[in-house]
Design brief:
There is one protein chain. The chain has 672 residues and is α+β, with helices and mostly antiparallel strands. Among the domains are: 1-127, Alpha Horseshoe (Serine Threonine Protein Phosphatase 5, Tetratricopeptide repeat), CATH 1.25.40; 348-510, no CATH class; 512-671, Histidine kinase-like ATPase, C-terminal domain (Heat Shock Protein 90), CATH 3.30.565.10. It is built from 26 helices and 8 strands. The chain has a 5-stranded mixed beta sheet with strand order 2-4-5-7-6, with helices on one face. Helix 9 packs antiparallel against helix 10 (170-186), helix 19 (349-415) runs parallel beside helix 21 (488-508) and helix 20 packs antiparallel against helix 25. It is globular. It starts with a helix and ends with a helix. Residues 459-538 form the Signal transduction histidine kinase internal region domain. Pfam families: His_kinase, TPR_8. Keywords: Coiled coil, Membrane, TPR repeat, Transmembrane, Transmembrane helix. One of its GO terms (molecular function) is phosphorelay sensor kinase activity.
Length: 672
């Protein structure tokens, strides 16, 4: 196959040959791979064919990968890619970088993986095969999904689907549509998901792709269930089950039955338990341990809803054993949530506290991993942006160069014409060139605007990723303080509120904007927690206008929280009298929203003196991040956000006023 590749000129056939070679490498032992690699490298030197070296590294990398020796695989894949780039073999180089990224993903190093995915994407257009570009887009979309970046993931999946349609890869297109539907479901974008489900069913039927059709109906069922259309949902899932039964494909029957059981919880509760049991049995029969564990947990949750705590506890013990035996980490948080609720219902507060502490340790570990990966992601993403910007610039220069060459050719042609027509033709050539330059200037300005917008979006994402860890770690420190110095009963109450707050924050952190309702719920939870911690040292009030449509407005997530946190920590903490914090929202006649955070604490000047005395070198990032976000909001969304401080006297205190033109949900959907 190596010699076939070297002699082949058609990009599509080269793509197929590389795929076949990688499949064949799975059959090699490590010793066979080393011998074959040595032979190729020797031949490369003797025959002066550097590409044989590239294939030597590729074969070794593949076999190391199949033997699960990922570090060695990454080394040889990257080496292969670099050598291929030197030889201007874009397709081979792209495969090398892409495979290295796959290994890094398997190791959990998502930030580094994104760097290589982007490198593969930049090489893909040079390969001559649209399938290589589609692969690159899909892999980046899949990786962004692991970062929970739904918008970015969806963007690349749409590009993949467009290319699939272009090259008539209809089966691959159906697969990628189902992946995109899953992204929309994760982002609660059910309207778009429903439209895609209809397209998915239609395209699957057109090409008689039965497995894909069953997947489409399954996703359609989930979308209808999420929007409370239970009869339609049941019809969809029955179609999916029937198709797989006709195909004698039981590999995902457990998953289909579990979805049907969830629907029956609303339509036919008596049958739901039996369907859950069938799902568990089906997953177990197909050695799908994760599916089996998920089905048992769903059944335990249903028993809990029925107040059948005895059976709920039995099923939770089964889940715990599977998590322990098979290290199923992705389901452990849901298990701990249900276990905590059950113990609390049973009055076992001490055991419930232990479960909460275990969950918080797990969440803190996950958060640290997420922050590490997000940091790498942001760095890699910015590197990619610079590369793409440079490529755009080079492409523009190339276009200008082509226009200049064309102009020269026209001039030489004109010299051969008679003098009679020279003046007239020169005039039209001048006008034509003038129009081209005008169009070129317009396109260049548009490109600059697009690039500027992308930079601003990148900065917004970076600032948002800094803000969420800042808030979470402050809250975790508060929990640690309270557990160490208070009694278990109050600690349980505090931890319960923190659990709810963490879930709210994690949900909000998926979005650049959240509704006012969601933001105020998080603020209220935070103030309740701090009020407990400071033993009712202060009271608070959240004052809202009477407008019913206030819930339609969006604000940046975590916008208000830093000022509320400052009011507590710098205003209330050092106050000798009972404090009061007011969070007030007013919708002004001119359509602007005014958010006021007011406290009767010791004031900013006294707080600054105490802070300087305690730690003169410490620098708080909360205000700096939020102020930067407000500046970016003004640039991107034109909300005219303004921030004002007012120092109060007699009594002392601080008043912070944030005013902006609010963004409606309709405007945000149109922007995205």
């Amino acid at each position: 196959m190596v010699q076939e590749y070297l002699q082949e000129d058609v990009a599509q056939k080269k793509y197929d040959l590389i795929q076949s070679l990688m499949e064949a490498d799975a059959l090699l032992s490590l010793n066979e791979a080393k011998q074959l690699s040595f032979s190729l490298k020797t031949a490369a030197e003797e025959q002066n064919q550097p590409l044989l070296n590239v294939f030597g590294d590729l074969i070794l990398a593949d076999v190391f990968f199949y033997k699960n020796q990922l570090d060695s695989a990454i080394y040889y894949y990257v080496n292969q890619a670099l050598s291929a780039e030197i030889e201007s073999e874009a397709m081979l180089a792209g495969f090398g970088y892409g495979n290295a990224a796959y290994c890094l993903e398997a190791k959990g190093q998502l930030g580094e993986a994104l760097l290589y995915r982007n490198k593969a994407k930049s090489l893909a257009p040079l390969s001559g095969d649209d399938r290589v570009i589609a692969d690159a887009y899909f892999n980046i979309g899949n990786l962004y999904s692991k970062f929970n970046e739904i918008d970015s993931s969806s963007l690349y999946l749409k590009k993949t689907i467009e290319l699939d349609r272009k090259v008539n890869n209809m089966q691959g297109m159906v697969h990628n549509i189902t992946f995109l539907i899953n992204q929309y479901i994760k982002g609660d974008n059910f309207e778009e998901a429903k439209l895609l489900c209809e397209e998915c069913v239609r395209e699957s039927e057109n090409i008689a792709y039965k497995r894909g059709l069953a997947t489409c109906y399954h996703l359609f069922s989930i979308v209808n269930q999420k929007t409370n259309k239970f009869e339609e949902s049941l019809s969809n899932i029955n179609k999916a089950i029937k198709i797989d039964q006709e195909r004698n494909d039981a590999t995902r029957m457990g998953q289909l039955l579990m979805t049907k059981a969830e629907i029956y919880e609303s339509l036919n509760p008596q049958e739901a338990v039996e369907l859950y049991k069938q799902s568990i049995y089906s997953n177990k029969s197909n050695d799908n341990i994760k599916g089996q564990c998920a089905a048992i947990l769903d059944l335990a949750n249903y028993y809990y809803k029925l107040n059948d705590f005895e059976n709920c506890e039995i099923k939770l013990e089964e889940v715990a054993q599977l998590i322990k035996d098979f290290d199923i980490q992705n389901i452990e948080v849901d298990y701990l949530d249900l276990k905590y609720e059950l113990l609390k219902k049973q009055g076992q507060l001490s055991s419930a506290n232990n479960i909460l502490e275990r969950k918080n340790r797990l969440m803190q570990s996950k958060m640290e991993d997420l922050i590490t990966n997000q940091t790498s992601q942001l760095s890699s993403g910015f590197d990619l942006y610079k590369v793409e910007k440079e490529l755009d610039r080079l492409a523009l220069e190339h276009e200008i160069s082509q226009l200049r060459d064309q102009r020269k050719k026209n001039i030489y042609i004109l010299l051969g014409l008679s003098f009679l027509f020279t003046t007239l033709i020169a005039y039209f050539a001048f006008q034509n060139q003038k129009n081209k330059n005008a169009v070129l200037r317009k396109n260049t300005e548009e490109e600059k605007l697009k690039l500027n917008y992308l930079v601003l979006e990148k900065e917004m994402d970076a600032l948002r990723s800094q803000m969420n860890p800042h808030f979470l770690f402050n809250s975790l420190n508060s929990i640690n303080d309270y557990i160490m110095h208070s009694n278990p009963k109050l600690a349980s109450n505090y931890l319960a509120k923190f659990s709810k707050l963490m879930r709210t924050i994690l949900n909000n952190s998926k979005n650049k904007f959240v509704s006012l309702d969601d933001e105020l719920k998080a603020i209220s939870l935070y103030l309740e927690m701090e009020k407990l911690r400071f033993k009712d040292k202060f009271d608070f009030e959240i004052s809202l206008p009477d407008e019913d449509h206030l819930g339609q407005f969006l604000i940046p997530s975590m916008l208000i929280q830093p000022y509320v946190e400052n009011a507590v920590k710098h205003g209330m903490m050092h106050s000798e009298t009972k404090g009061f914090i007011l969070v007030k929202l007013v919708l002004l006649d001119n359509g602007r929203l005014e958010i006021t955070v007011k406290d009767n604490g010791i004031g900013r000047a006294n707080a600054a003196l105490l802070k300087q005395a305690k730690d003169p070198k410490r620098k708080s990032l909360g205000h700096e991040i939020t102020n930067s976000r407000i500046e970016l909001l003004n640039q991107i969304y034109n909300v005219d956000a303004k921030l004002n401080y007012r120092d109060l006297e007699n009594p002392t205190g601080t008043e912070v006023i944030i005013s902006l033109t609010p963004i409606s949900k309709h405007q945000q959907n149109a922007k995205s």
